[in-house]
ATP-binding cassette domain-containing protein (Shewanella insulae), 265 residues
Amino acid sequence: MKDTILTVDQISLAFGGVKALTDVSFEVERGAVFSIIGPNGAGKTSMLNSISGRYRPQKGTIHFDNQDVTHLRPNARADLGIGRTFQNLALFGHMSVLDNIMVGRHHLMKNNWLTGPLYWASPAQKEELAHRRQVEEIIDFLDISHVRKSIAGTLSYGLRKRVELARAMALNPKLILLDEPMAGMNLEEKEDMARYILDLNEEFGITVVMIEHDMGVVMDISHEVMVLDFGKKLISGLPEAVMADEHVRQAYLGLEDDEQLQEVG
């Protein structure tokens, strides 16, 4: 039997008279790397926003880890184990890398305004140290130890993308939503990011739902691919089968023959 961690059933989302998503359904298996592709305006980010709780669809249901989360707020979904990165960087530019990542641990902390004043005499100090150890492990994993005390806004674009991934990992997620994690990166940075995504999937057991335009990356690291077209699901399946689909190949990838398709794979 399939071990499904995410079930999206007949989701429809509209903004006024504009339909962003129409009756979209799919399932993501636990431990998979699931990629969503399609042209600009296809509804990819709207789908991630619906899963994370940022948008509230007018129709359909979303189940995460056997629980209906359709009407839960984003912070409640984060508590259940849904992490998120954004297409446009959402870091606190004036804060250090370490502090940015620690923000991702905030919802896991039991310390509050009542115990805060008793920091040195309460378990709060031990709790913070434990969270810092977890953060340091993530920093080492993503090879950003050399910038851990740097101000996030001063870093290169590729490093800032890595810090945002680190903050999402700090949520201790079961599922992580990545919105174009390699956009704007050079070839070396893309190769590094692809390796980190594979490692967090395989070593940490985190399920990944990813939007990505680089078809080489999609083919290399995805277990399953879904194509959206004007807010509707066009096709989903194994990467090779999706890329071989005539409509996908010509309309979305600009490929005319089998030789070009092999070059992408």
